Amino acid sequence: MNDMAPSKPPSPVQAETAPGRGGRTLIRLLVIAGLAFGGYFAWQHYKGANNSQPAPTAGGRAFGGGNEPQTIRDAEIVTSDVPIMLNALGSVTPLATVTIQTQIAGQLQKIGFTEGQMVKAGDFLAQTDDRPYQATLAQEQAQLEKDTSLHAQAQADLARYDLLNKQDSIAKQQVADQVYLVQQNAAAMAADQAQIDATRLNIGYCHIVSPVTGRVGLRLVDEGNYVTPTSSTGLVVITQIEPISVVFSIPEDSLQQVMTRMRAGATLTATAYDRANINKLSVGQLAAIDSQIDTTTGTVKLRAMFDNKDDVLFPQQFVNVQLLVDTMKDALVTPNAAIQQGVQGSFVYIVNDDKTVSVRNVKTGPVDGERTAVLSGVKAGERVVIDGADRLKEGAKVLVRNGAPAASAAGAHGDTNATPGGSQTGGQNAQDKSGEANAGNGAQPGDANSKTGHEHRHKKDSGAAPADASAPPAQKPTTE
């Protein structure tokens, strides 16, 4: 034991290094623990500030208590006549479209129309060269005169033969031959006259006139061209536009309703609108129904007639058609905005005398523009909610303000927490403009001016917890 060498004391460098490392590690742990506790307390403070704000009502209304009335707009249930309409897509179809074609061959000498001109039946359109037919006519007329002379001579000979036959001075066979000769000459005269009529008809064909009243299209052949009856293009196309028809299709399920009205002798009014279904073009009447249903589409074609005196309907134009099938007399009518959809079907909110609302299930009927016929569930004179219904429930209190949309009125009175995607628009814009509320910041109605509204927005953007309206502004955390 005594022979063993004593242990070597640690060097000054090692004695200083070991305690230094442990001290730095301890400091780091203390800093991390302090940051963790600080973050925990900051989160608790933020959570407590949010919990101090009043919770929104079950109906999704703004903070401020469940008894605060909801701003709405309402309308009265009235009685009115409601038309039952069928909407369809149609095409303007002319009653006659004629391609003017020459009926004989010849050179086109003259054109008597202007492109786009309105012409009547019988108006001159074009002239082809008729000189060859005029020459043929002259020959046939000369032949007729010749055969007429021969016929007259044969008749005179027959008269003499009859006299001699009575005197028994001539053979009877000669008299019979003369009778047949007279008939042959008469037949030759008839043939000559038929040829003359045919030539005159060809001459008439050289003078081309319009067969219908309508509008002339673009010229297809110019003067000087040799035209033939076998040409596929023709000279010009004439389309009848006064009157004109619209062909449209309706579902086969609606056919019986239309047929019943037509069998009863009713005149069904058809109204044509433009492609955008905004501007009314013309009003006509249903004229005919097709004889069969198209099995590929399950629709049937109908034709409506229009006078088209103002030429507003153009051939092959696409139009929207509204067919007035019937009219409901003295029906209960409400604005479309009042009809709500739920699990039980359609319903409305009835505004009671005590400024509360009641849910009422209804059965709806035809829709006429911005109005809907109600078949059952309401009475005339009752008032229904037409704006602000998305935040209502049975028995909810309401504040009727019909002078402005409910969303804007709610924004002006502190209704700041409208549910996203609600039917009311413009409320958030009103809030941003007035600076009285910031959606989602938990501010009480009327507790914010332009300055505090700016502070709220600044805090929301920076991630700081919003302060209670009644409490002093939160102090910024300080670090040492």
Counting H and I runs of at least 4 residues, what is the number of helices? 7
Structural class: alpha+beta
Q: Main sheet: which strands, in order across?
A: 2-11-14-13-12-15
| Overall shape | elongated
Q: Which residues form runs of ≥5 with pLDDT under 50? A: 1-7, 10-18, 51-65, 408-480
* End-to-end separation: 58 Å
Radius of gyration: 50 Å
CATH topology of the domain at 101-235: OB fold (Dihydrolipoamide Acetyltransferase, E2P)
CATH 4th-level superfamily of the domain at 101-235: RNA polymerase II/Efflux pump adaptor protein, barrel-sandwich hybrid domain
What's the SSE pattern?
Answer: HEEEEEEHHEEEEEHEEEEEEEEEEEHHH
Query: Could you name the CATH class of the domain at 101-235?
Result: Mainly Beta
Taking all residues together, what is the mean pLDDT? Answer: 79
Q: What is the number of beta strands?
A: 22
**Helicity level, as a percent range?**
25-40%
Task: Name a few traits of the molecule.
480 residues, alpha+beta, Elongation Factor Tu (Ef-tu), domain 3, OB fold (Dihydrolipoamide Acetyltransferase, E2P), six-stranded antiparallel β-barrel, 28% strand, elongated, disordered N terminus
Describe the structure concisely for a colleague:
The protein is α+β, with helices and mostly antiparallel strands. It has 7 helices and 22 strands. 31% of the residues lie in helices and 28% in strands.
Mind explaining what this structure looks like?
The chain has 480 residues and is an alpha+beta fold. Among the domains are: 85-95 and 239-326, Beta Barrel (Elongation Factor Tu (Ef-tu), domain 3); 101-235, RNA polymerase II/Efflux pump adaptor protein, barrel-sandwich hybrid domain (OB fold (Dihydrolipoamide Acetyltransferase, E2P), Beta Barrel); 403-469, no CATH class. The chain contains 7 helices and 22 strands. The two termini are 58 Å apart.
